[in-house]
Please model this.
Amino acid sequence: MNSERRIAVLFGGLSREREVSLVSGEMCAKALEAIGFQVNLIDAGVDLAGELAKSSPDIVFNALHGQWGEDGCVQGLLETMQLPYTHSGVCASAVAMNKHMSKNLLAEIGIRAPESCLVPVSELGEMHPGKAPYVVKPINEGSSVGVQIIRRGSNKPARLFPEYDELVMVEEYVPGRELTISVLNNQALTVTEIVTDDWYDYSAKYAVEGSRHLLPAPIPEEVFEACLEIAELAHRTLGCRGLSRTDLRWHEERGLAGLYFLEINTQPGMTPTSLSPEQAAYVGISFEKLCFVLASEASCGR
Model:
C-alpha cells in the first residue's frame, strides 16, 4: 500500500534552475500525496545526507534540475546511502548532462547532431569562435541557461559570465523546427513541436504563454516515426531509466536527413508548462499516474 511507503521529494537545490525545481517538486509532492504516499519535501542543500538520514525514506523522488541534481552528483550520494531513487543513475545522468560528450557518444551510433567544438570561456568576447550563425552553450546547464545565439552579421561575439565552466560548446546553428520527445521506461510517448516568437529560451519554457506546443507535431509520418526512434535509441544508449526528454531540430527542406539531435534531459520539468507531463497526458497518463510510475520504478545500483 502506498500509505505505508515514505517518499522524500528532493526539490530546490543549488543550481541556476532552482526556481523551476521548486515548482516541479511541489507539483510532484501533491500528486504523490494524492495517491497515498507519505511525502517529505526536502530542499536539497549541502546538508542533504543528514536530512535524508533523518527522514529515512523508502524511496527518493528526484525533482531537482541542473547541476548537482541531475549530473550524477546527487545520484552518487543516493547510491552510497543505498536509497532507491527515480530517474537515471550516476553514469547516464553525468553523460547526458554533458552536452558535448553525449553528442559525441550518440554520433558513434549514427545519431546526427550539429557540428560543434569546445572553446575556452576566456576566448569569448574577443573574436567570433565560429562562423555566424552559431550557438554558444554551457556544457553542463539545462533550461537554456546561458545559451546564446549569435546571428549572421552580428558585430558582437558571444560573452559568458566567469562562473560558468572553463570550456563552453560552440555549435553550428541549424535552422528549422523545434521538436521534442519524451521517453518513459524505454517507450517514446509522442512528438511535440514547440513554436516561439524567437527561440526556446528560459522564458519561453516557463512563462505562461511563452511558447505554443503543437501536440502531436504536424510533421510527416516518416519524420514523426524517426523522431520516436531517435529518442528511444538515445535513452537506451546512454542507459537512462524512468523518464527522459530528447530535443531535436528539423530542417524540413532536408527531409529525414534534416533531423539533428540537440540534447537529452534526464530530469524533465514537471511544471504546469512542462512538455513531458503534457505528452504523458496526451497518451492517457495523468500527472498522478506519471509520478506513480516513476516512484514505482525507483531503484539503486543500476
About this structure: Residues 116-172 form one domain. The mean pLDDT is 88.
